[in-house]
Structures are given as C-alpha cells and as structure tokens.
Design brief:
The protein is 38% helix and 9% strand. By secondary structure, it is of the alpha+beta class. It folds into two domains: 98 residues, first zn-finger domain of poly(adp-ribose) polymerase-1 (2-Layer Sandwich); 128 residues, no CATH class. The strands form three sheets. Strands 5-4-1-6 form a four-stranded mixed β-sheet. Strands 2-3 form a two-stranded antiparallel ribbon. Strand 2 and strand 3 form a beta hairpin. It is globular, with a radius of gyration of 20 Å.
C-alpha cells in the first residue's frame, strides 16, 4: 500500500499526462505543448459489459476493478495512444476520473458523452442516466460561462430554441401544453422526449407535487462547481434508487427497506419508466445538447 504522499505525486503526474493527451499544457497556466492531437479524445459514460473479473481501472492509485454492469468512463483514444480504437480505451471508475479531470473547465466538460440508444446499444445507458448526464453537462457549462463572463445567449436566439428547451425541461408536467414539434427534430425523437424520456411524472392537472428527475438528482446551484465528485454522486444516487425499486421486499435489508419506503408511488413509477433502454431509432438530428 503506497503512502499518501506517493499517491498525491502519482495523481499529479497523471493529471499532467491527461492534459497533454488532450493537447493542453501540463499545468493549467502552461501553453499547449506541441501540436494538438490528430483525434480529440472523448470521455464516454457507459455501462461495463459482462466479463468474469471486470476491467482494471487505469487510475494508478485505484486497486478496484470495474465490475460488469457498473457505470464507468471510457476515454478514447486511450491515454498514451493517438488513434481511435473501440477496444483500446482507457477505462476508469467515474469517481476516479474525477480526481484527474477538472470538469469546471470547458476543455474537460465538453468531452463528456453518454453512450445511449443512438450509439453502442450493448453498453448503452438507461434513459434516466442519459438525461441526467446531458443536463448536468449543460448546467455545469452554464455556471462556467457565468463565472468566466461569457455573455448570455441573445434573446432572439433563446426564442428560436424555446420550444426545444421546454420539451427537454417540462415534458411530463401537466403544465406542459406544447403541441408543435421543434424545428429539425424527427418525429420519433419528439415522441421519445415527450413520453419515455420526460423528466416530469405527474398525476394530472390537480397534482401540486409533481416529481422531477432533475430536481431530485441534479444540483443545479452554483455550488455544483465546487463538488469534485458531482457527476459520480448524482449517478450513484440514481443507480441506488433504480436498484431499490427492482428488488423484492424480501431482498431488502433494513436500511434498504427504509430507503425504498421514502420513495413515493409517483417516484417509483418514474424510476421504472426512466430505467429502460429504448431501441435505437433510424433517424436522429443533432440535439440541443450537442
């Protein structure tokens, strides 16, 4: 077992290696060293496929394998590699990668991509995780822009995107009355976003306590910028609740039983709806999140 000082030194080295892999200077204040990478690395959030012993986490200070079914981050091209290869990504626990990547900087945040029904279905994510990761990315990006003094989007551009934003944020609520399909959005994707992927769960017009996915799991305040493990914490909370609702009462220990009892019928209904992985559709246009 290594000493705390040795672990700290190892993490410092890995952070520099990651920055240089992305075409950045080894330290935040350094200029880029050399030419930018021919292929820009991306950080894919995916579910680990089946295997006997799992996969080794690439963080040098981590001794735990990434087990089948666990959420992980796959960086492609791999650290130290320059070519895109589906089978040679660097794999990390998400909480481990958060020790290396500074997601309060756009150079890191913009590379996050959830694997979904539109990408590699055998490692795809349920729609709840898909929606949470994308909304987290937008939320952190908005706070980064405010911190860095980036001007807000002009009002005329906001109006252009208003229908799409309402669909993404308000679908499922009894107050969501939109009936027009946002320009450029395929009909099948509209129906997904308005139905199975809707963030709200409601009992109808008289429901004063509608359940909302983002309010439940996502920290949308400026404090999110200070939370090193905000992404992994959010996803763990979601995953724990999904696991709870799919367990029979006899399978729950005392703590799990108490946690499940705190979930309302509305929350359980929403969790079941959002824990599916829909079949991929043939048509898809670039979304608001791109």
């Amino acid at each position: 077992m290594s000493s705390p000082d040795a672990d700290a030194d190892s993490l410092k080295i890995e952070r520099k290696r990651l920055r240089q892999h992305l075409g950045l200077g080894p330290n935040p204040s350094d200029p880029p060293a050399g030419h930018p990478p021919q292929i820009q690395p991306l950080f894919f959030i995916e579910r680990a496929p089946g295997s006997r012993e799992g996969a080794k986490c690439k963080l040098p200070t981590c001794a735990e394998n990434i087990m089948p079914g666990e959420l992980r981050l796959a960086m492609n091209p791999a650290l130290g590699g320059g070519s895109w290869n589906r089978s040679s990504a660097s794999l990390y626990h998400i909480r481990c990668f958060e020790k290396l990547a500074d997601f309060t900087q756009a150079d890191f945040l913009d590379r996050i991509q959830p694997l979904t029904r539109r990408t590699w279905t055998h490692r795809g994510l349920n729609v709840g995780i898909e929606r949470l990761v994308l909304e987290w990315k937008v939320t952190i990006g908005r706070w980064i822009d405010k911190r860095d003094g980036v001007p807000d989007e002009p009002e005329d551009e906001k109006r252009v995107h208003a229908d799409f934003v309402a669909l993404l944020r308000k679908a499922g609520s009894s107050e969501y009355k939109q009936r027009t399909i946002p320009t450029g959005l395929p009909l099948d994707e509209y129906h997904y976003l308005a139905g199975p992927l809707a963030p709200f769960e409601s009992d109808g017009p008289d429901d004063k306590e509608e359940w909302n996915l983002f309010d439940t799991y996502l920290d949308s305040t400026v404090n999110a910028l200070d939370n090193l493990h905000g992404l992994s914490t959010m996803l763990q909370h979601w995953s724990d609740d999904v696991e709870l609702i799919h367990k029979e009462e006899v399978e729950l220990d005392e703590q799990e039983g108490a946690a499940k009892a705190r979930l309302s019928k509305k929350a359980i209904r929403a969790l079941k709806r959002l824990s599916i992985i829909p079949m991929p559709q043939p048509s898809y246009s670039r979304s608001f999140y791109a």
